[in-house]
Specification:
four-stranded antiparallel beta sheet; 23% helix; alpha+beta; Glutaredoxin; 2 domains; single chain; 4 helices; Antioxidant, Horf6, Chain A, domain 2; elongated
Length: 141
């Protein structure tokens, strides 16, 4: 109820997302979720703000650990999930600061001829001082 009240919503018995109670911090210890720099009134480490994203294959795809004193950035989490979903099925990678709809990078293992077939909107390279053409981009498929 406190979580819903904090968000300005009516207190409810059920949250719209799963949450795990870990009163003895057993799971937090196993998953490395304790912040050794932030302690509670009893001198116990506070639980850090952790985000784990697992893929359909049940493998860990992302782990972000924020200090106990820092809130999570949900825009960044959603951006990463969009990237993970896109890159799992297309032969692309997302560059720094990528947002859905921006151009993406063609993975370096994909030959140029195959890239031209896979990305009919075109493949372009970033001009670099070395003259090498290894940074290939395409509109987001």
């Amino acid at each position: 109820q406190d979580i819903n009240a904090y968000n300005g919503e009516q207190p409810a018995e059920q949250l719209p997302f799963p949450i795990i109670a870990d009163k003895n911090r057993e799971l937090a210890v196993k998953l490395g979720m304790l912040d050794p720099d932030e302690l509670d009134k009893d001198g116990m480490p506070l639980t850090a703000r952790v985000v784990f994203v697992f893929g359909p294959d049940k493998k860990l795809k992302l782990s972000i650990l924020y200090p106990a004193t820092t809130g999570r950035n949900f825009d960044e989490i959603l951006r990463v999930v969009d990237s993970l979903q896109l890159t799992a099925y297309k032969k692309v990678a997302t560059p720094v600061d990528w947002k859905p709809g921006d151009s993406v990078m063609v993975v370096p293992t994909l030959p140029d001829e195959e890239a031209k077939k896979l990305f009919p909107k075109g493949v372009f390279t970033k001009e670099l001082p070395s003259g090498k053409k290894y940074l290939r981009y395409t509109p987001q498929p």
